[in-house]
Amino acid sequence: MLQQQYVELAELAGGFIHEIKNHLSTLGLNLQLLAEDFGEPQSQRERRSFDRIQRLQGECGRLVDISNDFLRFARVKDLERQPAHLDALIEEMVDFFGPTARQANVEIKVYLPGDLPPVLLDQDLFKQALLNLLLNAQQAMAGGGELTIQAVREPDWLVLCLIDTGKGMTEEVQSKIFRPFFSTRPGGSGLGLPTVRKIVEAHGGTIGVESEVSRGTKFTIRLPIPSAGVNGSGKGTSVETIANLNGKQMPLAEVMVPALDRGFLFGDAVYEVIRISKGKPFLMAEHMHRLARSLDAIRIAGVDLRRMEQRIRETITAGQYQEATVYIQVTRGAGLKRTHAFPAQATPLELFWVQEFVDPYVEARQHGASVTVVPDIRWDRCDIKSTNLLANVLAAQTAKDKQCVEAIFIEKDGTLSEGSHTSLFGVLDGQLLTAPNSNAILPGITRGLVLKLAERAKIPLREHVFKHADLPKISELFLTGTTSEVLPVVRVDDQQIGDGKPGPVTRRLQEAYQQAVNEAAG
Ligand code: PDD
Fold first, then answer.
1. Interval 422-452: pLDDT, tens
2. Pocket of ligand 1 (CB under 6 A)
3. Whose CA is nearest to atom 19 of ligand 1?
4. CA of 440 to the centre of ligand 1 (A)
5. Does 82-224 match 242-356 in CATH topology?
6. How many alpha carbons fall within 13 Å on the CB side of residue 361?
7. Is the CATH number 3.30.470.10 carried by domain 242-356?
8. Rounded to whole angstroms, how far apart are CA atoms 512 and 515?
9. Residue nearest atom 11 in ligand 1 by C-alpha distance
10. From the alpha carbon of 271, which atom of ligand 1 is closest?
11. Catalytic-residue membership of 385
């Protein structure tokens, strides 16, 4: 089913159950009053009525329980995950469940290796899943038995098993137990195990079951270990790219976006790229602020950027990333069909991933780069960081075809505005120039920092455009960007800039930039 339809249906069902619960509570209250009235039956008839009232009270209670189970099931979506130690959480749950188990003659044995790596958990939800499984095991062992809880580490997964010596299940039952409303237990809502599965899957994990009648049942939960490469002996090995789609963490390769997603269909989306240096996101507040501005400009509402920032920080910590980038993309979501105008209701799709950064500009930053000039065929709102990047893509490919690191856009009046993915600075008559922010360029975050650094270094500067015709007089040229940092340009097509080497102003700003990065990383 389409994600959007599912969300709508779940919301509708949730609202419906709430409504029913309100009426159930009135019903329950009245039944209680009636039960009090008939509490001391005077006749056979009154006794029968009292019995009936009690049965109705029981049914009413059951409806409340089912409704609560349903709401718990429907509510598993927005996870608040933090790095957590599963062993501590299991011990807490076993402690909590101990008295119930003892009463039921169930002995719990726990085997956990001491060096389990942390995993990202929504602890409250995960405890709920564990409790469900513990209760399930206890109910399967009516006359008592043994419950073994063990965990092992695989390269990319933490594997948790719960093995009981209960009555077991036939293959047919096993194939249905994760289906909502399937239950073999009289009075069961049939939502316990489906909720467990939903919780595990929302953590990017899987749950499986093996069972034998009269012997017992084993549930196996697999939870992803964030960025397995860095936790262990990972130095030098490539680090897994951790993605997060709508709050759900998964390897980037497993991210699936619906075909009707408007980011995919129309480029109806905005994005950010943030650099992580020495384990810390650099200029994160500025990037999140620009993201908010972009969202606002294209009228996407309801995205909790603080929660997203929190999730990004958690992912960086859990993956122990040092030199990396975060790519963030928010789309308007998916409509029910492809229409240009906004769909009546669409939930924005929130995606980010954290990827190890291998710097491609080390050489160019030292010796200077070549660029080419291409006509600016973009739209009139280049200040919005939208994923509508076809003109930028074609420009960058032209540059690549010409063995240049970047393409610079030229406007109809000859102005050199910015690069396909960088901002542009030049030094003309001893003055640092860069195009003022307007609809024609992206307000680069690195551009903003470099302007501040130049001011601090007392470099004369002016936010003013320069033109292609100025190139012979331009003594220095450089690009700025999140991943390019401060990148000297020594050639524009056939024209050499200055003496063909990175100039002193560029060098000073490169140093100041590096200092700012070091300061931010502490
Ligand atoms: N590009 N101009 C354009 C058109 C850009 O796409 C970018 C960034 C910049 C530099 O902005 P900042 O300093 O905030 O990174 C200027 C990103 C990195 C990209 O598309 O990958």
1. 999 999 999 999 999 999 999 999 999 999 9
2. 273, 392, 418, 421-423, 442, 444-447, 480-483
3. 421
4. 13
5. no
6. 22
7. yes
8. 5
9. 444
10. 20
11. yes
Atom of ligand 1 nearest to the CA of 290: 14
CATH number of 82-224: 3.30.565.10
The CATH class of the 8-74 domain is: mainly alpha
Closest C-alpha residue for ligand 1 atom 17: 421
Class of domain 362-521: alpha beta
Q: Which of 198, 235, 385, 400 is catalytic?
A: 385
pLDDT tens digits along 321-373: 999 999 999 999 999 999 999 999 899 999 999 998 888 898 899 999 999 99
Q: Which of 300, 166, 156 is nearest to 230 (CA)?
A: 156
Predicted confidence (pLDDT) per residue in 36-86, tens digit: 988 888 899 999 999 999 999 999 998 988 888 888 887 776 677 778 889
The residue among 417, 396, 404 whose CA lies nearest residue 467 is 417
Is residue 10 scored above 80 in pLDDT? no
90/464 Cα distance (integer angstroms): 62
Give the 3-state secondary structure of residue 397: helix
d(CA 330, CA 321): 23
Domain boundaries, the chain: 8-74, 82-224, 242-356, 362-521
- Nearest residue by C-alpha to atom 6 in ligand 1: 421
